[in-house]
Specification:
The chain is about 45% helix and about 15% strand. The strands form 2 sheets. An 8-stranded mixed beta sheet has the order 8-9-7-10-6-11-12-13, sandwiched between helices. The chain is α/β, with parallel strands linked by helices. α4 links the parallel β4 and β5. The longest helix is centred in the N-terminal third of the chain and has 31 residues. The chain has 16 helices and 13 strands. About 45% of the residues are buried. The structure holds adenosine-5'-triphosphate (ATP) and magnesium ion. The site of adenosine-5'-triphosphate (ATP) has 21 residues, from α6 and α13.
Amino acid sequence: MTDRIKVLIVDDIPETRDHLSKLLGFEADVEVVGAAPGGPEAIQMAASVKPDVVLMDINMPGMDGITATEKLAAEVPTASVIMMSVQGEADYLRRSMLAGAREFLVKPFSSDELTASIRQVWTREKDKQSRYAPIVAAAETGHAGSGEPAMVAAVFSPKGGVGRTTISVNVAVAAAQAGKKVCLVDASFQFGDVGVLLNLNPRNKSIADLASELQQGENYDSLDGFLVTHSTGVRVLLAPPTPEQAELVNGAAVKRVLEMLRNEFELVIVDCPSSFNEPTLAVLDEADMILTLLTLEITSVKNMRLFLEVCEQLGYGPDKIRLVLNRADSTLGIRVADVEHSIGRKVDHTIVSDGRSVVYALNRGVPFFVSNREAQVSQDIQRLAMAVTGPPPTPSSSKPTERASKAAAKNKSIFAWR
Ligand SMILES: Nc1ncnc2c1ncn2[C@@H]1O[C@H](COP(=O)(O)OP(=O)(O)OP(=O)(O)O)[C@@H](O)[C@H]1O
Ligand SMILES: [Mg+2]
């Protein structure tokens, strides 16, 4: 087999290393390239054997798994870490993600769980590399290409209630009203609000129907039958009607759905939840751009700082993240300059606060971009939609990775706004 997944095992307990090696020895597509008893040995070994995946124990004497993962991310960035822990608490998960781990397995786990995680992490990484390769090539030769698939823009915030759904819906409508083919995906799978803001019948099909059919091996040339059409022309893939059905939608399904939508639309906007779970990570990975929302509140700023660190660990370039300050003119909070100072980067876009237009529109189920086109908040949305889809500036001194994502954005700049 040509393309075996090279795995390095890191655990201080010899029996665990042996057991994992034996388990993986049965897998034809996996090759154990080494087993290290601790963090320093793992880093040294990884530098020479260049593993695709590192199985890392979190609790080890001396250098723990989190520190080792951080160092590994700097020294062998092509290695994806799967963290293993007997504790499954959110704090462990969060710290692992911050350190750069791509998956988290709670011990004891079955051999099926282990191999599924290894394959999933590896496929995701390969996929990402193959997506970047042509972009880098295009950036280097200066040919942006044409007829590219849609831009996928995720609207995310590490804090709830900051206006993600409001902005997703109105940006989608602004783009559709400019005559573009737009799909809006409600990825708040448990408590999706897009259907409410657009006054759509919840009995329509949702992503839960689609995900379960895809899992049963169904193939579709078009997802048309699963989309609802809003009067503005925006096509909507609704969230499941009940929270339990959210379970049906995993990261793999999300990824597949977004790939399919890319080929059918010019712009795909994804309204994300604030939770950092596997399906959300799949959206963020798949997105070309993450519109990251914050407000002038200390909790919003604190979470944003953590999120930006996670983005760095996940390898998202600075151009992928756009900071959007919602309710930017709110006088009760902290100052914009303080926010920028605290998170160490400038806010890219601002949206004014306009409770009258926004809440009135929400309660009527008509987007304010339609009902109050002249309002400042609608003009801010228009400007944001233009920024999402228009050509970004290309400074002469970009680094290669920045150049690559700029070329990607340029490739996907499909809108001619008037
Ligand atoms: N620019 C704005 N001006 C005034 N009110 C706003 C603005 N943006 C959002 N809101 C209000 O803030 C509330 C939260 O907005 P929204 O539901 O869009 O946030 P969310 O981030 O999607 O929240 P959730 O965590 O529930 O998904 C709503 O009542 C909305 O009307
Ligand atoms: Mg929402």
